[in-house]
Specification:
By secondary structure, the protein is α/β, with parallel strands linked by helices. It has helices at residues 32-48, 78-89, 107-113, 144-153, 156-164, 167-179, 185-204; strands spanning 18-22, 53-58, 93-97, 116-118, 122-126, 129-134, 209-212, 219-222, 227-230, 239-244, 247-254, 257-260. The protein starts with 17 loop residues before the first strand and ends in a 14-residue tail after the last strand.
Length: 274
């Protein structure tokens, strides 16, 4: 399959720069006006991060559908791809983790953006913290049906079979499949407890922080063992998370700048004080 799991060599001291996390833009999923606004704001953010971000983690579902054929790939959101390339050229290390909608990104995406593409969760150390980072789909316990489907569609035979389908038809199938997983407030609420349990389990496993996307709600839990983070979505909330020397900060892009947020946390799941 068209995948790249290589990590770029880390520059000396680069790991101590600011690290940003962004997920779930679902570029290509909405109306023309919504897509224009999403792309405009994302290009503005990526431009603002030049010289500020040592690392940028794109934590899955940046695209609502991305599949690379051997000889053709439907290029989406060229302005965003160009902004990523300029950010990479300016020195930011970009790591792209495939989500359930864009798991099939590979060499074409890398060549267009300068990013490194990963298909498995990443374990890295920044600011002395050992981080577990993943998109998050299929990781919490439960939903056996989705786990089975996930294993099938990510298998080499399935990817090879999909390549036989003409790109136009493949894109149509991708859009149809995307519509089956409509993002609703009820689905978000139902997903939070299992994802929280998964993240806290990772802290119990010895990670200092566990970070995922997928849930489309920006949440953070600070415990004695570490920090659990759901990045939130760019699609509706323009959510961003930053890790600096003083820890994690939840942010959103608003009026041309990043501003701090106070993420909503369900009453039954309080955030411990810093």
């Amino acid at each position: 399959p068209p995948m790249a799991t290589r990590a770029r060599p880390r520059d000396s001291g680069a790991s101590e720069g600011d690290v940003y996390f962004l997920a779930d833009a679902h570029l290509g999923a909405e109306s023309e006006s919504a897509e224009f606004a999403k792309e405009r704001d994302l290009v503005a953010l990526l431009t603002a991060l030049r010289g500020r971000a040592a690392f940028l983690y794109l934590v899955g579902d940046v695209f609502d559908f991305w599949f690379e054929y051997r000889r053709a790939t439907t290029i989406q959101s060229p302005s965003v791809l160009g902004a990523l390339s300029k950010l990479s050229s300016a020195g930011t290390v970009i790591r792209f983790l495939g989500g359930n909608h864009d798991y099939w990104a590979g060499g074409t995406f890398e060549s267009l953006t300068g990013a490194a593409v990963f298909r498995d969760p990443l374990i890295e150390t920044h600011h002395g913290l050992r981080l577990f980072t993943a998109h998050g789909d299929g990781l919490p316990s439960g939903d056996l049906g989705y786990r089975v489907l996930r294993a099938i569609i990510r298998s080499r035979p399935a990817i090879a079979a999909f390549r036989i389908v003409p790109p136009g038809i493949g894109a149509a199938v991708g859009r149809w499949a995307s519509g089956l997983s409509e993002i609703t407030d009820e689905r978000i609420r139902n997903a939070i407890p299992a994802m929280r349990a998964f993240l806290l389990g990772k802290l119990e496993d010895g990670f200092d922080a566990a970070i995922v996307g997928h849930v489309h709600r920006q949440l953070i839990w600070r415990t004695d063992r570490g920090t659990a983070v759901i990045v939130g979505d760019w699609m509706r909330s323009r959510s961003v998370v930053r890790l600096a020397a003083d820890g994690f900060t939840t942010l959103r892009w608003s009026n041309g700048a990043l501003e701090e947020t106070s993420p909503e946390v369900p009453k039954e799941e309080p955030v411990a004080a810093d």
